[in-house]
Amino acid sequence: MQITLLRKITYLFLIFIFWFGCKEKVAPIHPQWVKKAVFYQIFPDRFNNGDPENDPTMESIRGSWPHDNESAWQVSPWTSDWYHLQPWEEDNGKGFHHNVQRRRYGGDIQGIINKLDYLSHLGINTIYLNPIFHSPSLHKYDAASYHHVDAYFGPDPQSDFAIMEKENPENPQDWQWTSADKLFLELIKKAHQKNIRIVLDGVFNHTGINFWAFKDVKKNGPQSKFKDWYIIKSWDDPKTEQDEFDYAGWVGVRELPELNEDENGLIKPVSDHIHSVLKRWMDPNGDGNPDDGIDGWRLDVAEMVHHNYWKEFRKQVKAINPDAYITGEIFWEDWNNYKFMDPKPWLNGDQFDGVMNYRWSVAMAEFFINKEKKITAGKFADRLYDLDQSYHPETRYQLLNLMDSHDTDRLSSHIVNPDIFFDKMVNLHDNPTYDVRKPNAQELEILKLIVTVQMTMPGPPMVYYGSEAGMWGADDPSERKPMVWPEFNYEPEKANLSQTPRPIDTVEFDSSLFDFYKTIIDIRNSEPTLRSGSFRFVYSDNPTDQLIYARELEDEQILVFINNASNSTKMVYPIQKSSWKDLVEGDIYSTEGKYLSVPIEAKRARILKREKN
Predict the structure, then answer these.
(1) CATH number of residue 112's parent domain
(2) For the chain, first and last CA: distance in Å?
(3) Is 208 helix (H, G, I), strand (E, B) or coil?
(4) What is d(CA 149, CA 27) in angstroms, rounded to the nearest whole number?
(5) 301-350: per-residue pLDDT in tens?
């Protein structure tokens, strides 16, 4: 991860060529390590509690939804039945959907450090962290500051608050390093030692109501020096009893006041502040060598911030670390009419390297998961081809291929609930009939098929924490359960809010599924062809639900045979005389005449690599 002067000079030269030197369309300049990346998304409060001494307090959640500061509260038991209310939750009489938003489980930075060996063993080389900055909520998309890690993620919350109280948050020269900040830097150091990169969630469209600048606006009104940072609709009239103070919030959410923009994007004072934040976390010691900093940013609700700002943001990021990765959340264009946004305007080489590839996710779900609304093999191939044609060929290797996240139901539960639109009506609040049970053996075979495809297509795959351990769950909040670890004994899940009956489900670490994930990830990590090779469909058959695609790099070739049908079969592919090794099973298949004949079970894939003569 060493960055050298030569690399910086090379990067600047390539920028010159990109902008001025060539009339033909040239490849955008992307970090090449992303081709080799296997991402693992961590929701910090729910991943691992490495230090129970720093657990959140009731005071720490003040200012977050549902703004219940009166009911009794405790840190929630890590291994408890998810839908079951604890005694203090039952006492307030407000039900699951109210109480689940008040839950905190104590996951922290030390917990992530303690599990780096686990992630390394799985084959992970990049961690994407949901927001870690100071905030009262469980998700931390409502930042109270951008320049401090949440105190309850670190070893000494009270001392950290004392440090923050003394500094001037407006002045980067006055910023101090809290114990939580320092522990996060230690996480970066230890992760880098294991060749694991760190990508942070950047939430720069809005802040929380506890953000230091917004609190000043709330306190001082039109006299606040930060009044232009936000979109103020009306000020409070002190002559009246009611509070007329009003402002724009993300999709109307008052807990998330939006930052102000002009024709250049975020206004200059806000942009300058964020620039200082970028430098703080990307080059913490400020010596010009970013090896001690994070390796990239995932940008939340990125479509809501002006393109001009993201162009400036890219320049700022790449000036600090030319190898940093920038990926954006470009999701819904019209949620009501189920229309996804086209990310192409952000992917022309002047803003983002990649995006969270949700349009790929939808196509995958419609072919591999749906039953009544299933698309054909040919339609699936056409959909992916059309997506590929939307971008420069090199950009395809920067798109984050995911099947679930903190914003969707888990992949395993999506399989249990086929034919529901991706990320729409997939939790019990919106869909009381959503089936919350554990996936069965047949459904896990579908999951394994999907993961095999995910790990053998171009573009970095992302594993949402716990998928490899067998976790399941509906959309927000139930995709955010505490991680299932092999060293813990968990209560079975039997409480049920769904109108669909459920069995009593055991909750335990699925070592067999973990081994499967590890095997497929290891294959990806060991085969440059799967990471960087070309991609093309070479066969599709609608009646049999069969597909074959080829990955090729120089003289290497890998064929992936897919049987998405419910019956075993023998797939036959015309090809010149050759022998092929199954990279999972180790079996060798040779052509018979002009055909390669491959037996394959229902809902399975085979990864075959051509043997060299």
Answers:
(1) 3.20.20.80
(2) 37
(3) coil
(4) 36
(5) 999 999 999 999 999 999 999 999 999 999 877 767 777 889 999 999 99
